[in-house]
Amino acid sequence: MSGKARHARISRRAFAVTALSTLVAGGAVAGAALAGAEPSRSDGKGKRATRELRGMWLATVANRDWPSKQGLTASQQRAELITHLDTAVSRRLNAVFFQVRPTADALWPSPYEPWSQVLTGTQGKDPGWDPLATAVEEAHARGLELHAWFNPYRIANHSDPTKLVASHPARKHPDWVVPYGGKLYYNPGLPEVRRFVQDAMLDAVEKYEIDGVHWDDYFYPYPVAGQTFDDDAAYANYGGGFPDRASWRRDNIDKLVLETAARIKAVRPGTSFGISPFGVWRNVATDSLGSDTRAGVQTYDDLYADTRKWVRQNWIDYICPQIYWNIGFAAADYAKLLPWWAEVAKGTGTKLYVGEALYKAGDPAQPAAWQDPAELSRHLTLARDHPEARGHVFFSANEVGTDKIGAMARVVADHYQQPATPPR
Predict the structure, then answer these.
(1) Interatomic CA distance for residues 151 and 155, integer angstroms
(2) How many other β-carbons are positioned within 10 Å of the β-carbon of residue 69?
(3) SS3 call for 324
(4) What is the C-alpha to C-alpha distance for residues 344 and 307, in angstroms, rounded to an integer?
(5) Smallest Cα–Cα separation from 397: which of 355, 358, 352, 354?
(6) 3-state class of 164 per DSSP?
(7) Per-residue DSSP letters for 172-221?
(8) DSSP labels, 224-292
(9) Neighbour-count burial for 160-170, b at 16+ CB within 10 Å, e otherwise
């Protein structure tokens, strides 16, 4: 999740947006969405349906979208969840990306990790119902795909392990934990950590008929000035075969991606696996294969995530880069990044969906382009010139509903008049 929302509540994008807005030459940060369409079949009512993903993220970290606050009753939580799903239908979306493991915890009864604090206000406390089971059932009843969204390595948005429930794996295995930038993370360099986080995520894949496994942009954490991610011991133990620490770190994330992809296919073969990275792999000034951008963060160099390789080598089913900038934004122009990603996806089996920064629409802190209700609609218009772009995902559910300046309504009016089914 990239992007710190300016208010105190942290969303997936919330972390990175604040931090990264300063890094991207006066801009803000990432997200995930989808574009493009291809004619496919009739919906049975005489209308031609298109094959296009139309999604929204439903963020739970720090109660960003849902539940609206901690400690609601099970019936109140369920009612709010249903409202979000109904809103997705009313906006003619067909997929919801539901954050079910926001901080090394769970929104289902997991044998690996505690119940999430976002539900009851107390980590580990049973909320009295199963949100993931309900989300899958109710989404499918409405014709929506339900993608379970996991964050692999983030443990907590604070740095005090004693605030975690006593049974938390991070307290049982303090050697797995790295404090960094005022937060706690699992160390991606430890094979036992990589296995554990896969087991924790795959538990949901085994138990529920989810349509997809979804990761956002957090791998190694976003850089924090003056801070060092202390993985010296792990590097000493496991990094001997690599030319440098950066190569070893990228290999750790590569292994996580490859192993998870294989395990998903073994457990539930029809389930898609996709990743929503920060929108810039590398700047062209850094690498001739990079995009014509001047971003202050590059996923390859700073998050140790070789997102381009995952697409080119067909390791994942879809990539959903968070192209969270407006058309014409100097440091990272949507109109330049979209074609770059389309070219990366071209000829591969990896679908391209585009992450859209709906949360910026009407935000007075954002550039003038985001005060125009038509900005996002123009993004989808551009995407239709790139057949590789197969849909959009909007960040995030609250804004899909509230739609401060009518930007989402404009998207629906301009692009979503015909029914659509997600690409398969």
Answers:
(1) 9
(2) 13
(3) coil
(4) 10
(5) 358
(6) coil
(7) H-GGGEEEETTEEEE-TT-HHHHHHHHHHHHHHHHHS--SEEEE-S-SSP
(8) -TT-----HHHHHHH-TTSSSHHHHHHHHHHHHHHHHHHHHHHH-TT-EEEE--BS-S-BTTT-TTSBS
(9) eeeebbeebbb
DSSP state of 322: B
Among 302, 340, 395, CA closest to 19 = 302
Taking 50 as the threshold, does the pLDDT of residue 133 lie above it? yes
Amino acid at position 421, single letter: T
Nearest in space to 107 (alpha carbons), one of 132, 126, 136:
132
Backbone angles phi, psi at 224, to 5 degrees: -120, 125
What does R_g of the chain's alpha carbons equal in angstroms?
20
Position 156 pLDDT exceeds 50: yes
pLDDT of residue 216: 96
What are the beta bridge partners of residue 101? 150
Are the beta carbons of 311 and 350 closer than 8 angstroms? yes
Helix axes 407-415, 375-383, angle to 10 degrees: 30
Q: Whole-number mean pLDDT of the chain? A: 91
User: Would you say how long the chain is, in residues?
Assistant: 424
**Number of Cβ within a 10 Å radius of residue 284:** 14
Q: Which residues contact 73 (CB under 8 A, 6 or more apart)?
A: none
Helix (H) or strand (E) holding 39: strand 38-42
Percent above pLDDT 70 for the chain: 88
Q: Which two tokens stand for residue 200?
A: 């924790």
The structure tokens listed for 125 are: 């406390």
Is 80 exceeded by the pLDDT of residue 109? yes
Instruction: Tell me the whole-structure pTM to 2 decimals.
Output: 0.91
Cβ-based neighbour number of residue 79 at 10 Å: 12
Are 278 and 217 in contact by the 8 Å Cβ rule? The answer is yes
* Residue 152: closest CA among 334, 337, 305, 339: 305
